[in-house]
Structure formats: C-alpha cells, structure tokens
Amino acid sequence: MKFIATKELGRLAKWMRILGFDTEYFKEENYPKLKIIALRDQRIILTRNTRMSQPKGIRLVQVKHDFLDEQLRDISQEIDLKAEKNSMFSRCTICNVGLEAVEKENIKDKVPEYVFKTQDKFLQCPNCHRIYWSGTHWGNVEKILKEVSL
Ligand SMILES: [Zn+2]
C-alpha cells in the first residue's frame, strides 16, 4: 500500500514513513501531475484539499483534522491501515527511501559521541546519508501508535 500526500500534509507524510508506509510528499499545486503519479505508482492520495475531486481509478482519502493522531485515524477509518512492527523505522523520513544497515565503525565521526557509545545499531539513508538510530529521530512513536490504535 503506497501513498502520496499533498503539500498541507508534510508532517503526516513524515509520520507515515516512520510507520513504514511508502509515502511520497508532493509539494506542488500541480494536481494533474499529482494524479498522474498516483495512477502510475498506484498510490493512494492523502489530501486536506476539500475541492479535490475523486479521480477515476485512484483512491483518495480526505484528511479532515489538524492533529497527527486524528489525521492517522481519518486514514485508518477509510482504509485498513496496519502498521507492521518490522517495517517501522525502516524508511528515511526525508527521502522516503529504505534505510540500510551501516557498520558502526563507519559512522564514528558522523554521530555524537554519546550516541556512538550507547547505540549499536545504525541505519543510513542511501540518498541523503542521514544516519538513524533508535530513539533519537523517532521520538514518541509508541505513544502516537497507542493513541490511534494502529
Ligand atoms: Zn534520506
């Protein structure tokens, strides 16, 4: 299940990625182009734009709320959104690209010293080279998940 979020939904797009969902973030207002991408990649459109009509052959979910937990609930009411434990935290929150495991020794100079000392598992985005480790960039995911009961 893949998604494409319109420009009002940057934070939601980031969180969809944290939860493991392939989610493009489309910042332009070029809606015909958006629909072409959605159709081509079979992506479900997530939008707050109430004027966007349901395009043929593409699923569209209207996100009605402002806050993240409510937005996730908006989506899960429309589609069977199941966050898989082992696909969470596997995607770059900026690039929507799958993260790759990286040897601890190779990133020694790229993370804060205390992180290097206390963490053993590191992942890296092959696109932007951002380094991820548990707890830091992902914050209170468990709490959000509980609130939206995904
Ligand atoms: Zn990245």
Explain how this protein is built.
With 150 residues, the protein is of the alpha/beta class. The chain has two domains: 2-78; 100-133, no CATH class. 30% of the residues lie in helices and 17% in strands. The protein has helices at residues 10-18, 31-41, 68-78, 113-118, 141-148, and strands at residues 2-5, 22-25, 43-47, 60-62, 100-102, 122-124, 131-133. It has a four-stranded parallel beta sheet with strand order 2-1-3-4, sandwiched between helices. Strands 5-6-7 form a three-stranded antiparallel beta sheet, with no helix packed on it. Helix 3 crosses helix 5 (141-148). The radius of gyration is 17 Å and the shape is elongated. The two termini are 15 Å apart. Bound molecules: zinc ion. Zinc ion (ZN) is lined by residues 92, 94-95, 97, 125, 127-128, 130.
Short account of what is shown:
The protein is α/β, with parallel strands linked by helices and 150 residues long. The protein contains 5 helices and 7 strands.
The structure class reads alpha/beta
Ends apart, CA distance between termini: 15 Å
Sheet with the most strands: spatial strand order: 2-1-3-4
Hetero groups bound?
zinc ion
The count of DSSP E runs of length 2 or more, i.e. the number of strands, is 7
- Overall geometry comes to elongated
* Low-confidence region ranges: none
Main sheet record: 4 strands, parallel
Spatial extent as radius of gyration: 17 Å
Spell the H/E element sequence.
Answer: EHEHEEHEHEEH
Instruction: Let me know the average pLDDT.
Output: 89
Q: What percentage of amino acids are in beta strands?
A: 15-25%
Total domain modules: 2
Helix content: 25-40%
Number of helices: 5
